[in-house]
Amino acid sequence: MRWPESAASAGQGMKFNQKYVLWTVLPVCIAMVFIVGWFARQTQEFSDLQAREFESAIVDMRKSQLRDYVRIVQAAVAHLEPSASQSESEQTARELFEVIAAIDYSEDGYFYVYDIDGVNLVHPRQPYRVGENWLELEDEHGKPVIRELLAQAQSGGGYTEYQWEKPSINAVATKIGYAEMLGDWGWMIGTGAYLDDIEREVASVQQAMAPHINNTFQTGALAALAAVVAVFGCGLLLQINEKKLADSKLRELTRRIVLTQDEERRRVSRELHDSISQSLIGVKYLLEEVQVQREDSGSPVESNLALSLGHLDNTLDEVRTISRNLHPSILDDIGLMAAVDALIDAFSERTGIAVHFGNVKVRNVLPEEARTALYRVVQEALTNIERHAQASEVSVNFRIQGQWFGVTVTDNGIGFDAERGRGGRDQRGIGLRNISERLSYFGGVCEIGSSAKGTTLFAGVPKTLLRRSPSEFESA
Question: Checking CA distances to 315, which of 37, 98, 431, 450 falls within 20 to 30 Å?
């Protein structure tokens, strides 16, 4: 079971990372939806614009065709001109009507002829109109169709849009008509095209173009999506790199703080040992000398001197303990195992608890900070056992375990709730927290498990930190 603080920190880190990614992804997703929506709208508007332009072009082309058709018919009947003789003129007019009535270019494409008064002379699709005056004829919208066609013809030729029955469907539809005056006859000749044919043609073209427009939209949308994803990926990568850099700098800062603390402890320990402790020893020697000189005097000074010497001895012991706890000089002098052995001896002597010590020869193999961290692990574990565990046996074993080189401290005490702390409350020790932080600098681990039968703590650093091959280590 991993140490609770590490698990809690990992959980908090996951929550932070989730929020970090969420607030990074959310704006990009919104931007992507906006871009795709905008692109879809622009594509649709472009498609509609193309359809309108195509429809306009078709209408213009049809108008041009209508004018050409009328002029072709005019050329075809140009040889039929009115004569001075009425009978000949009537005969020529009948030939003219037959020629025009016989000419068509589709089921709904025909030519019609009206005289200046609005009387129909030729209408191949609606013969009932022939001979009748339709000058005042209006379509369903109230437009005087024949009157406007005559006006356009008399003005040199022009177009009129109106409602007219379509032969192929036997229903009224919108029609564009073109009319001109017919040669020297003084009559109007015209033809027309129905707009629903143009609309069907436009719809057919739109249907043919739809796959291409969809492909264009999909390609553009994918390109926009790829661009957004690329921007998001680059931004996220940059942010992750910045976060890693910030975390790295924070770890380095914390490491320097810890190293500074260790250095300060070493300095204070040295001063306690070299200065205060030496001064106290000098005072003790002086007091002992005075005591020897006055042994036979029997004066009260003797008892006071003895009491002073007792207090001085206690003070010296405290100074040595403080110095050793701050930074054991033996750790620098003869290595980690000797320092831990001395720590265990002092613990056993102080508490009466039997300790089994299993060590390996690693002097000057680990970096100084790693040695200090593992020493502090053992020191903190023994302190907790002394204060809380009510144990009678303890084992401290250094070993290679998987990818780790570390120490296992086991006791047969009463145990505690490793998830919540002792007493079932969230009371995790500052010492173990600091130890876990120390180990994290090296990529190390700190794991603890506990039950009613005792507690086991394992702390390790990567064995890659070792300056010698693990196979060279020997149990001591």
Answer: 431
Q: Is the pLDDT of residue 14 over 70?
A: no
Beta strands 393-401; 187-194: pairing state = unpaired
Domains and CATH numbers, the chain: 38-270 (3.30.450.20), 331-472 (3.30.565.10)
- Tell me the average pLDDT across 419-444: 65
Rounded distance between C-alpha atoms, residue 208 and residue 213, angstroms = 9
Q: Average pLDDT for residues 426-438, to the nearest whole number? A: 64
Q: What is the mean pLDDT of residues 110-119?
A: 94
Is residue 410 packed enough to be buried (19+ CB in 10 Å), middle (13-18) or exposed (0-12)? buried
Contact 331, 370 (CB under 8 A): no
| Helix/strand/coil percent split, the chain, to 5 | 60, 20, 20
How open is the CA angle 424-428-434, to the nearest 5 degrees?
170
pLDDT of residue 31: 76
Residue bearing tokens 């939209």: 217
Q: What is the pTM of this model?
A: 0.43
Give the chain's length. 476
Would you tell me the crossing angle of helices 336-351 and 368-384 to the nearest 10 degrees?
Answer: 10
